[in-house]
Amino acid sequence: MKYIRNFCIIAHIDHGKSTLADRLLDATGAVTEREKQDQLLDNMDLERERGITIKSHAIQMNYTLDGQDYVFNLIDTPGHVDFSYEVSRSIAACEGALLVVDAAQSIQAQTISNLYLALENDLEIIPILNKVDLPSANPEEVTDDIVDLLGCQAEEVIHCSAKTGLGIESILEAIIARIPSPEGDNLASLQALIFDSVYNPFRGVETYFRVMNGQITKGDRIKFIATGKEYNADEVGALKLKQEPRKRVETGDVGYLITGIKEAKEVQVGDTITLATSPTNSPIDGFEEVKPMVFAGIYPVDTEDYEELRNSMEKLQLNDASLVFQPESSAALGFGFRCGFLGMLHLEIIQERLEREFDMSVITTVPNVSYHAYTKKSPDEIVLVNNPTDLPNPSILDHVEEPFIKASIITKADYVGNVMSLCIEKRGHITNQTYLTPERVELSFDMPLAEIVFDFYDRLKSVSRGYASFDYSPIGLRTSKLVKVDILLNASPVDALSALVHTDNAYTLGKKMCEKLKELIPRQQFDIPIQAAIGAKIISRETIKAVRKDVTAKCYGGDITRKRKLLEKQKKGKKKMRQVGNVEIPQQAFMAVLQLND
């Protein structure tokens, strides 16, 4: 145990975590020349295409220093704010963290947020200044920023370039010198923390764990404390580039376990594994429960695929524990699921993974957040509103509370005005403004979560020319004046398109939605009115004109009454058609609401 080091790499998005992980693997000989490739640990096509890490990836390396062999368990983490739950899980399985800062971009919002996460878990922090070889790098100034942030000495900051391999040996030596070895008792009852799991169609659920106390041997009868179920450990081993079976995994080590579980919901991330013969009395304190921020409905395009979609979601949840879902039904879309996500990028990734990995064609409804409504009948009773259709009738509604967040934005001094006007437009209140350096400012706002779920991040990048970084944390609920805007197509409401918005924005949103739907819904044989309504009051209307056949083409000359008779006949037919007509809504219409500001 003295020679084991467990650590993760944390940083803001695009600061070079995955490249640094690649260089560490090269330096320790964990990969052969043939296996080498960029972003080696990012094994999803999506991660490579977008150049981001979505999942944490664990891998074991061996390193020899002064004739002594060491075992390193490295967990590479995502940097995007939507995947901070993955980071919290990785941190729970480690004793130390490499905090990577880009020498050209300096400290960003997510750097600070991940650092606080690591400090809360008492991790040893090794500050690393990456990309020092770039022409735009400013190592001296950024080193001073890191010293101010961490309160460490300037000599403790390791300068490196993950691209060229400069400074990698110093990092490996610092890991051994500074990160403590794991503590625990190898002879005590088994306690292992599950920090991740994946679904293998041939072998069932593969569970990734970190042993806190005791040891787990192949063939042991093991028990999952949360579910109380028992299994045989068919295979245990270490997480090298490919899984490497072992006889046993001991205290302080990270490994995988295969028990042949086929049911995805039987494995819970954060659960404790123990031996069925001599179970432990105290489960490990798992990391915090996931708090979904954004809710959206996911429905199969073909209603017969409902059960298949449920299986796909369960397998996906196993691989991404931050996905939360429950069944619901909609008048417009049939049976589907109400899903909770950590943000808009998370929603986009889940939708794409369902389509790629499980071959599911799905429709996603307009994302929204969760509100608390109070009625006049029972003022103390909370009505949870996850879906605009759950909002009580306006006649009995007393008030609605919506979730607020504390947003921290770090930007260049030149863009403070632009960022402020964007936040104020999104109903934000500025609470603090700190100059980190004469050039860089940290702005703190209290904002409604509903205002940032759509396009806030993209617009923030636009107004700051890509220089602003953004991080947020929930701060509770506050009373707001909210109304439900319904969209009616051919006089029947489409529940999947209704939205809860602030009174001041209701008219604009209703008008924009009607105009957008007019462009996207194909013309039918009859006129289709598109209306936006608040309760019984129509606030906006657009009409999609009918596709008409020229019924008077065969009448040339003669009395006008002959033409009128044909037109009247057509009019009656159109009216009848409109009463029984059904309007098909294309998938783009549901997603179009998100791009209303484009």
Provide a compact summary of the structure.
The chain contains 14 helices and 31 strands.
Describe the structure.
There is one protein chain. This protein is of the alpha+beta class and 598 residues long. It has five domains: 4-178, Rossmann fold; 191-275, Translation factors (Elongation Factor Tu (Ef-tu), domain 3); 294-364, Alpha-Beta Plaits; 371-480, Alpha-Beta Plaits, CATH 3.30.70; 484-595, Alpha-Beta Plaits. The protein is 26% helix and 33% strand. It contains 14 helices and 31 strands. The strands form six sheets. An eight-stranded antiparallel beta sheet has the order 11-10-16-7-8-15-12-13. Strands 2-3-1-4-5-6 form a six-stranded mixed beta sheet, sandwiched between helices. Strands 21, 22, 23, 24, 25 and 26 form a six-stranded antiparallel beta sheet that branches. Helix 5 (139-150) links the parallel strand 5 (124-130) and strand 6 (158-159). The radius of gyration is 28 Å and the shape is globular. The chain starts with a strand and ends in a 6-residue tail after the last helix. The relative contact order is 0.08.
If you average the pLDDT, what whole number results? 81
Percent helix? 25-40%
- Tell me the structural class: alpha+beta
> CATH homologous superfamily of the largest domain?
P-loop containing nucleotide triphosphate hydrolases
Number of domains: 5
**Number of helices, where a helix is a run of at least 4 consecutive DSSP H or I residues:** 14
Range of strand content: 25-35%
**Strands of the biggest beta sheet: in what spatial order?**
11-10-16-7-8-15-12-13
Shape designation: globular
The biggest sheet, with number of strands, parallel, antiparallel or mixed sense and barrel status, is: 8 strands, antiparallel
Low-confidence stretches: none
Roughly how many Å apart are the termini?
A: 56 Å
